[in-house]
Automatic annotation (TrEMBL):
A single MF term (Gene Ontology): ATP binding
Protein name as catalogued: ABC-2 type transport system ATP-binding protein
Taxonomic placement: Bacteria, Pseudomonadati, Spirochaetota, Spirochaetia, Spirochaetales
Family, similarity comment: Belongs to the ABC transporter superfamily.
SMART domains xref list: AAA
C-alpha cells in the first residue's frame, strides 16, 4: 500500500506540490495524470524516494520512506520514461548483472522475467540493437527484478507502435493483479484501458481522485448523439427537438458527404436515446445513415479540471 499524507515540495520560493494526500491499496492500477508542470513528476519522485517532501509523509506498506529509505525502496520497482539501460550489454547479461545487484539468484530470476516480459526472442541481442518496445520490456524486467510490491511506471508506452503498446498494456494488467501499480502517462485512453482509478494533479494540488466512471460523471451526465440523415436537415432537427429528453439540437451539412445533414443532439442524462430518435426519423420519412452516442470521456474530465488552474 502507498500512503501519501499532506505532502508538499518546495523549490526555493516555488511550491511545486501543495498538500497532496491519497492512498493506493495492493492490487490496484492507478493512473497519475496532470498537465506539464502540474507537480505530477515531483509527486512521483517523492513516492519513489528520489526527492524528500518539504512537508508531509510518504509511507510504503507502513514504512516512512524518509525515515527508513532503504527498507521502503526495497518494496518499489521504478521504470522511468527513458530507462538508463547499458546499450553495449546483451539483454541476458544485463539482467543477470541487475539480478546480482539486487541479491537475486540469476538462474531462477532471469528466466522468470524473460517469460513474464516477453523477452525470449531478444535475450541474445545487444540492448542498443533493440526496438524501443523491446527496450521498454527490458526496463520493465529491471523494475521487477526485486519482486516489488509496488511498481511505478513513467510513460511506459511512449514512442511504441500500436502492437507494442497493446503488448506492454497486457503485461501491466497481469502485473497489476498482485501488485500496486502507478502509471504516469499523457495518454488518457491508456488510463481508461488499464486503470481502475485516476488521480489528477493540477497546479500542484490534487483536483480529482476516484474511479474512471465516477470521474466521467463528475462533470455531469449529459451526452451527445450524432445523427446523419438524408433529406431536409432543418425539418429533421425540428422533429428531434420534440423528443422527450432532448436538451437541444443543432444541424449542419455532413462534412465530406453531399446532400447529407448532421444533427448534433444534446441529451439530458446519459440514457440511450438513439432508438427513439431513429424511430421518429424513419417514421418521418428520413433516410438514416449514422447514429453515434458519445458520453463524457476522461479527456473531457481532464480538460475541465486542469484548464486555467
Amino acid at each position: 500500500m502507498i500512503e501519501v499524507s499532506h505532502v508538499s515540495r518546495n523549490f526555493g520560493d516555488f511550491r511545486a506540490v501543495n498538500d497532496v494526500s491519497f492512498s493506493i491499496p495492493t492490487g490496484q492500477i492507478v493512473g497519475l495524470l496532470g498537465p506539464n508542470g502540474a507537480g505530477k513528476t515531483t509527486t512521483m519522485r517523492m513516492i519513489t524516494g528520489f526527492l524528500a517532501p518539504s512537508a508531509g509523509s510518504v509511507k510504503i506498506d507502513g514504512i516512512d520512506i524518509t525515515e527508513n529509505p532503504v527498507e521502503a525502496k526495497r518494496k518499489i520497482g521504478y521504470m522511468p520514461e527513458s530507462a538508463p539501460l547499458y546499450g553495449e550489454m546483451i539483454v541476458e547479461d544485463y539482467l543477470r548483472y541487475i539480478a546480482g545487484i539486487y541479491g537475486q539468484n540469476p538462474e531462477e530470476k532471469v528466466p522468470l522475467l524473460c517469460k513474464e516480459c516477453g523477452l525470449k526472442e531478444v535475450m541474445s541481442k545487444n540492448i542498443s540493437e533493440l526496438s524501443r518496445g523491446n527496450r521498454q520490456r527490458v526496463a520493465l524486467a529491471h523494475a521487477l527484478m526485486n519482486d516489488p510490491e509496488i511498481l511505478i511506471l513513467d510513460e511506459p508506452t511512449s514512442g511504441l507502435d500500436p502492437n507494442q503498446v497493446e503488448d506492454v498494456r497486457s503485461i501491466i494488467r497481469e502485473i497489476g493483479k498482485t501488485r500496486t501499480v502507478i502509471v504516469s502517462t499523457h495518454i488518457l485512453s491508456e488510463v481508461e484501458t488499464i486503470c481502475s482509478r485516476a488521480i489528477i494533479i493540477s497546479g500542484g494540488k490534487l483536483v480529482a481522485d476516484s474511479s474512471i466512471e465516477e470521474l466521467k460523471n463528475s462533470i455531469g451526465t449529459s451526452s451527445t448523439v450524432y445523427i446523419t440523415v438524408g433529406g431536409d436537415g432543418n425539418k429533421a432537427c425540428e422533429l428531434v427537438k420534440s423528443i422527450n429528453g432532448v436538451a437541444g439540437v443543432t444541424v449542419g451539412p455532413k462534412e465530406g458527404e453531399a446532400n447529407l445533414s448532421e444533427l448534433v443532439v444534446s441529451v439530458n442524462g446519459d440514457a440511450e436515446i438513439r432508438p427513439v430518435i431513429i424511430k421518429k426519423l424513419v417514421e418521418g420519412g428520413f433516410d438514416l445513415y449514422e447514429a453515434a452516442h458519445n458520453k463524457n470521456t476522461l479527456e473531457d474530465v481532464f480538460h475541465t479540471l486542469t484548464e486555467a488552474k
